[in-house]
Design brief:
The protein has 678 residues and is mainly α. It folds into four domains: 179 residues, no CATH class; 197 residues, Helix Hairpins (Orthogonal Bundle), CATH 1.10.287; 131 residues, Four Helix Bundle (Hemerythrin (Met), subunit A) (Up-down Bundle); 149 residues, no CATH class. The protein is 66% helix and 1% strand. It is built from 33 helices and three strands. The protein has a three-stranded antiparallel β-sheet with strand order 1-2-3. Strand 1 and strand 2 form a beta hairpin. Helix 3 packs antiparallel against helix 5. The radius of gyration is 32 Å and the shape is globular. The protein starts with 10 loop residues before the first helix and ends in a 26-residue tail after the last helix.
């Protein structure tokens, strides 16, 4: 896994900036100077930590490299590369080998071109010292070798394994844009040594209890409800007690002993108290505290790196101020902000300058620019309503003013909240009842009337501004429900798919009540705000799932089969194999939980993550598939024993630590000002 390299500039360029520009005037700043300063500020704003060449040509290539379109292209081709698993054997949608190989070759060419572009941006010695570049090169070469070997063997009729597919998700980690994902993996890696001590102590406790259980119950001739011997095999006891830690087999696992003697319940109570409640709580606390400690260190490094970049940008644009102080003029500052964020308005730039309230911007104020640019600023333009322009007398009439006042009144909101609640009751009733069907049309008409009244009251462009999420949500849901209802009516309720969509849209209309309750709206807005952080750790989980799914597909495909009800296969009731006949897995009809394609593999891994009934899923492995049992247990240990999911949920709300937490900086004179959203 690649580490981000430190960001320092070549001594020649920095010396020129610190010396020559210190006495230069405003007019001496060239376009190249502003481009270089803009790159430093942009890197500080987006926490990029790349050692790049400061020559004008390299800076231009670096700007192109970081363009959002280039980054989007990389992610699109990574997605296509990962999605090839849908079409490769074992496939959800089969495609010829030459087709998938051709698509993968195109993806590898794009990754190679991106890597070549990156090599032109940074010094050559830095490129070859960066582990993530080496990792990408190795992945590309191994994938190319695998394509050639796999295609050759398949064309000659031999069986082959696509072993390079497990490397595909590592591209997500090692591309330059995956810096947040690398930080997450680094935090987990750094916290792992301390966590292992608690894990080994937990395993010792579980083995100790397993040994006691063997001695207590092994010779008492007890049997489970399935007629199996109870607690006579040490490894089976270890597995059952491990499952008990997750509470998935409670109280089933203790009932034979409890039925034999009520006193034996104390053994299981003590085990659950120590291993489930105490050890797991300590385990989670250690995961969280160590992860947070290393996360704060990452934040400190980011803050230090951000300030260093801003000081370099300041050195490029600095000029003499009053006394011996070096400053940046407002003219240069405005031009710099325009280069960094060309889409912001003049009013936005004036607002940022108003925060400083200075004609000449000093070093202390200049380093705050990335934080100012990251503030969400909503620009409201006062526009007259189109109806006011077209029909001024009608729009300004007393009736019109009264109507607009009524729409803006709180009572209007309360009335529609009541309508939504009544609608919720009708949704729960039988939709095939004619009265209910007519009522749905009435509710739909009321919702359409609400949107039309709001559009009449507020200027349409302001109503559908990009920050008006709930207005967009309401309008899309209501219009989609209207279209679906019309299509469904023309179909005469004969299309089940259309009917399902209509019913879902009816339920989604109830979400509108969230916008009416301030606390609910705050929670939803918070979840939207932390969306990028959730996406980062969604990628982390995707990497782990994809690797386990690819390995599982190569090793265990077609071991378990799902057969339709009309199948004539003699082993239809045992998932296509006599080894699972009479097992809990087969009785519960879990046959679709297999590694026969990437979709079923992901669903199986998700079921193991969720925990409930996961031990029943593993029962397929105990009866004939020991390798599957070991493999699935390894995955479950990663996600459940390590408390990874809990740790990630905690991390989501720690990821946006304020810079006040990044104390003990080398230079206390550059403490960051804290700004809220404007």
């Amino acid at each position: 896994m690649g580490e981000d390299t430190a960001d320092t500039s070549s001594s020649g360029r920095q010396g020129r900036s610190n010396g020559a520009t210190a006495s230069a005037g405003v007019d001496d700043k060239t376009k190249d100077d502003f481009c270089l300063a803009a790159v430093y500020v942009s890197d500080a704003q987006f926490n990029r930590n790349i050692f790049f060449d400061t020559s004008p040509q390299a800076v231009s290539l670096y700007l192109l490299y970081n363009h959002w379109a280039m980054q989007m292209i990389v992610y699109v081709f990574i997605f296509v590369d990962l999605a090839l698993a849908l079409f490769e054997d074992p496939a959800v949608i089969p495609m010829p080998i030459w087709g998938t190989s051709l698509v993968e070759m195109i993806c590898l060419i794009v990754f190679t071109a991106r890597l070549f572009h990156y090599a032109k941006v940074i010094p050559r010695i830095r490129f070859w010292k960066d582990p993530k570049n080496i990792c990408i090169i190795v992945i590309i070469l191994l994938s190319l070798i695998d394509i050639i070997i796999y295609g050759s063997l398949k064309s000659t009729g031999y069986n082959a394994v696509r072993w390079s597919r497990v490397l595909r998700p590592l591209l997500l980690v090692n591309v330059t844009e995956g810096r947040q994902l690398r930080r997450a993996f680094r935090s987990i890696r750094n916290a792992l040594p301390q966590i292992l001590y608690v894990f080994f102590l937990f395993m010792f406790s579980m083995l100790l209890f397993s040994l006691m259980a063997l001695k207590l119950f092994g010779k008492r001739n007890l049997f489970t409800v399935d007629g199996e011997p109870y607690f006579t095999n040490f490894l089976d006891i270890v597995f059952d007690l491990y499952v008990l830690v997750t509470t998935a087999n409670s109280p089933d696992v203790m009932m034979p002993a409890y039925n034999y003697n009520s006193f034996f319940a104390l053994f299981f109570i003590l085990y659950i108290l120590i291993n489930t409640y105490i050890f797991m709580s300590v385990f989670l606390a250690v995961v969280y505290n160590n992860y947070k400690k290393h996360l704060k260190e990452e934040v400190r490094q980011l803050v230090k790196s951000k300030r260093q970049k801003m000081l370099r940008a300041f050195a490029v644009l600095q000029q003499p101020g009053s006394g011996e102080e070096l400053v940046v003029s407002q003219e240069n500052w405005n031009q710099l902000v325009h280069l960094v964020q060309p889409d912001i308005s003049n009013a936005h730039r004036e607002l940022l300058l108003f925060v400083f309230s200075l004609l000449l911007i000093g070093k202390l104020a200049f380093v705050q620019l990335p934080d100012l640019l990251n503030i969400q600023v909503i620009t409201m333009k006062s526009r007259p309503h189109p109806l006011h322009i077209w029909f001024p007398l009608l729009y300004d009439s007393s009736v019109s003013r009264l109507l607009r006042h009524a729409v803006k009144h709180k009572a209007f909101v309360y009335i529609y909240d009541l309508i939504i609640l009544v609608n919720a009751i009708f949704i729960g009733l039988d939709e095939e009842n004619p009265l209910i069907a007519y009522a749905e049309w009435a509710f739909l008409a009321l919702y359409l009337l609400e949107i039309l009244l709001k559009l009449y009251t507020w200027e349409p462009r302001a109503f559908f501004a990009k920050h008006q999420f709930w207005n967009w949500f309401d309008s899309v849901i209501i219009v989609a429900a209207l279209v679906g209802a019309i299509v469904n009516l023309s179909d005469g309720y004969t299309s089940r798919q259309i009917l399902d969509i209509v019913l879902i849209l009816r339920v989604l209309r109830l979400i509108r009540v969230v916008d009416s309750i301030k606390r609910f709206r705050t929670i939803i807005n918070t979840l939207i705000k932390i969306g990028p952080t959730i996406l980062t750790f969604g990628q982390l989980i995707l990497v782990v799932y994809y690797i386990f799914a690819m390995v599982g597909m190569e090793l265990f495909k077609e071991k378990v089969k799902y057969l339709e009800a009309d199948s004539t296969d003699p082993y239809k009731d045992s998932c296509g194999t006599p080894l699972l006949r009479g097992t809990t897995f087969a009785k519960n009809n879990y046959c679709k939980n297999n590694f026969n394609n990437v979709v079923s593999s992901f669903i199986l891994l998700l079921e193991l993550t969720v925990v409930n009934q996961w031990h029943d899923i593993l029962s397929q492995s105990v009866h004939g598939f020991k390798a599957v049992w070991l493999y699935n247990n390894l995955f479950h240990l990663f996600f459940s024993g390590y408390k990874t999911v809990d740790g990630l949920l905690q991390r989501m709300f720690e990821a946006d630590l304020s810079l006040e937490d990044a104390d003990d900086m080398d230079d206390p004179n550059f403490s960051n000002i804290t700004f809220d959203s404007v």
